[in-house]
Predict the structure.
Amino acid sequence: MNCRTDLALERQEMLNGEEHGGVTVKNWKRENASVTQIEIVNEEGERSIGKPIGKYITVELPEFSHESELLDGRLSALTETIRGLLPGDNCTVLVAGLGNESITPDALGPLCAKQIFATRHIEKTTANELGFDSLRPVAAVSTGVLGQTGIESAEYIKGIVELVRPDAVITVDALASRRLSRLGRTVQMSDTGITPGSGVGNARSRIDKSVLGVPVIAIGVPTVVDGETIVSDLTNDERVREKTGAEAKSMMVTPREIDTVINRAARLLSMSINCALQPDLEPQTFLSLM
């Protein structure tokens, strides 16, 4: 399946309702969030969807650029989903922000990592003195990109994993979509890891359990859309599509309010991750720390 999207939901939609073995789809609502879980259970499912075996949970929300409230159904839906993907209640977790902070549509991971409540360095006696009776050990890093560091994100994270020895890794990255309607209002979470840049045709080394030796939970928000898809969706005129398609084919498009989208998405994701990792703390505590 040749398409520029990171979303398992969109790959499943491209099957046009056809039944495919090895793929199960469940849908439900939670307040102002629509949730779709796609589970790929065998190699047949892998071939039909073009994604590794595992769970892919897509949460569709009100647009981040139109909403600034955090303590609502969006936060609880994301928090519960992340918590359900974790391998244990007290395991040590490394949160890795992927992407380039200097390029706004790709800055989601680094901005999110900055707002993670890192606790691995806090001793138990100190935590008790601060009123934090139960803290999960959490570390957070931003990997940068190969062009900045000369180091693949997978190599960077693997080196840290070997030193820190977390029980799980959470990656946060900007994604690509095929639909304008999903930009800045969709969150995908999976237990399969991630291949950074795959949705825009610039795939880097994969980051998953086979590479790191621990489970990898991948979280992302679509911030760019395939330009060729936009041309196809906006016109039925074959001549127009033929004329503009060649130019659009090499383009990825982002909304003009991308600064607001990225900032609010990073804030919502970091809050959701913090709440999932530290269930004994109130969301208001994280707001005061951010």
Notes: The longest strand covers residues 216-226.
